[in-house]
Write a structure and sequence with these properties.
10 helices; globular; 8 strands; single chain; alpha/beta; about 40% helix
């Protein structure tokens, strides 16, 4: 079985054909999906999907790219995370690629999410782009990692260096690979995926974005996560069944509120 550890099936391009999306998941042996929150106004839609479908779980958080949106506080995040279908805090993190100027508000928002994760004991889903130094620094300062008493988490849609991956793994974080790893242009990322131990790895789609080969350019969906697993199996010269089994086990190890 495969698990899509990060998707956005509440986004309109997927939500409007949800029965088909769930059917294709089943056809491709994708047994579970984690629908990830990006802001608080849309969180009720994310939660509703998780409540309506036994194999869908959800997170609560505010993405770093959302500038003009209600700002969460620790108490609010922890209160919303009490729901049994909420298994993570995020996605959160830093993104210096899409936004410019004074981004201290991003860093403060990230700290809020880490503090909520520590307070409620639920792992973080971390987004980092062109900001790895500050991301790792704040993770350390706020004690995000299991080595510092935090709940740990996952570096989602990973595109950074092996050094960044190792630093995150040293803090007890998993590294999640998306369809990007299947792209011909992603040679450096493929080299990272070869080095990250399978025991530290998750797979995801980040759908509706970043469809893997052979669907590149199309709208992505959770059923396509099998292609990520197949490509990683090829990189590591392993049976795809082993990649599927281990990444699924890793999912349940990290997101303890999810049931197999």
């Amino acid at each position: 079985m495969y698990i899509d550890s990060h998707c956005h099936i509440n986004f309109p391009e997927l939500a409007e054909r949800l029965p088909d999306i769930l059917g294709k998941m089943a056809d491709n042996k994708v047994t579970h999906a984690l629908c990830v929150s990006v802001n608080l106004p849309e969180f009720p839609q994310v939660l509703a999907l998780a409540e309506q479908h036994a194999n869908v779980y959800a997170s609560v958080g505010v993405h770093p790219d959302y500038e003009d949106t209600p700002e969460p506080d620790v108490e609010q995040l922890c209160r919303l995370a009490e729901h049994p279908k909420i298994v993570a805090i995020g996605e959160t993190g830093l993104d210096y690629y899409r936004l410019e100027g004074d981004l201290e508000w991003q860093r403060e928002r990230f700290r809020t999410h880490i503090r909520a994760s520590r307070a409620c004991g639920k792992p973080l889903i971390i987004h980092t782009r062109s900001a790895s130094d500050d991301t790792l620094r704040i993770m350390r300062e706020e004690g995000a990692g299991t080595t510092a008493g935090g709940a740990g988490g996952v570096m989602h849609c990973f595109t950074e260096s092996l050094e960044v991956a190792r630093a995150a793994m040293d803090m007890g974080f998993f590294i999640s690979f998306s369809g990007i790893v299947t792209f011909k242009s992603a040679k450096e990322l493929q080299a990272v995926a070869q080095e990250v131990p399978l025991e530290n790895m998750l797979i995801e789609t980040d759908s509706p974005y970043l469809a893997p080969v052979p669907h590149r350019g199309k709208t992505n969906e959770p059923g396509f996560v099998c292609h990520v697993a197949e490509y990683i199996a090829k990189l590591k010269n392993l049976p795809v069944e082993q990649v599927a089994q281990q990444t699924s086990a890793n999912f349940f190890k990290l997101f303890k509120g999810a049931a197999a």
